[in-house]
Write a structure and sequence with these properties.
By secondary structure, the protein is α/β, with parallel strands linked by helices. The protein has 10 helices and 7 strands. The strands form 2 sheets. Strands 5-4-6-7 form a 4-stranded parallel beta sheet. This is Aspartate racemase.
Length: 231
């Protein structure tokens, strides 16, 4: 492990998910004192346009903003970047082409983790934004595992409501009401045969916990924190 490595978080997508990733990096690092931790530089830029809106409705592209934020992190000495937003990985190649520092591909690392730890999984249930689902972003990496998704009604009235709703996670709410929406959506996928649930939006693990459901719950950002601190 290179404990002199400087980790950069290309954040703000959203701010609480950014803070959560930083905490996950801290928890994943094996230390005995402050000085054993990695130096982490964070640019939490909530002005980056919404990724789902850009993908589904032709909204302003987030790429320029993500590139500018990445370049800020490069100037601060970051040697590897993490993006605490699953949907943002739709744009990862465009952003990476403009940067000299590598971006850790969280979806790719999640696939490797599943194949190593859950090698017998046949069907994965994905809870994510509609942008991530409609682009089949996870299927690009989980090409040999069946992915199942909430139906349209559940996606809009439960998953997206939990994330983007007036009292949703992006509004700062991670309590019982939001958790119940996500638990219900997850249980529908489990009833359809999901062996594993992926929390494929960085806001989801802020409310949905392993204790809430009967099948394993995978948080890609926990995997990312583990990878970046161990390699």
């Amino acid at each position: 492990m290179n404990d002199d490595k400087i980790i950069g978080i290309l954040g703000g997508m959203g701010p609480e998910a950014t803070a959560d990733l930083f905490l996950k990096i801290i928890k994943a690092t094996k230390v005995q004192k402050d000085q054993d931790h990695f130096r982490v530089v964070i640019d939490s830029n909530p002005k980056i346009p919404d990724r789902t809106h850009a993908i589904l409705y032709g909204g302003e592209s987030p790429v320029k903003y993500m590139v500018d934020t990445g370049k800020n992190l490069e100037k601060m000495g970051a040697e590897i970047l993490l993006m605490p937003c699953n949907t943002a990985h739709y744009f990862i190649e465009e952003v990476q082409n403009e940067l000299s520092v590598p971006i850790l591909n969280v979806l790719e690392e999640s696939y490797r983790y599943v194949k190593k730890v859950f090698s017998d999984v046949k069907k994965i249930g994905l809870l994510a934004t509609t942008g991530t689902i409609q682009t089949r972003l996870y299927e690009k990496y989980f090409y040999d595992i069946e992915m199942i998704y909430p139906n349209e009604t559940t996606q809009e009235r439960k998953v997206m409501k939990a994330i983007y709703g007036e009292n949703g996670i992006k509004s700062g709410n991670t309590g019982k009401e939001v958790a119940e929406l996500l638990i219900s959506a997850a249980n529908e996928l489990i009833e359809q045969g999901a062996d594993l649930i992926i929390a494929g939006c960085t806001e989801i693990p802020l409310a949905l916990k392993q204790s809430h459901i009967s099948t394993p719950l995978l948080d890609p950002m926990t995997i990312a924190a583990k990878v970046v601190t161990e390699n």
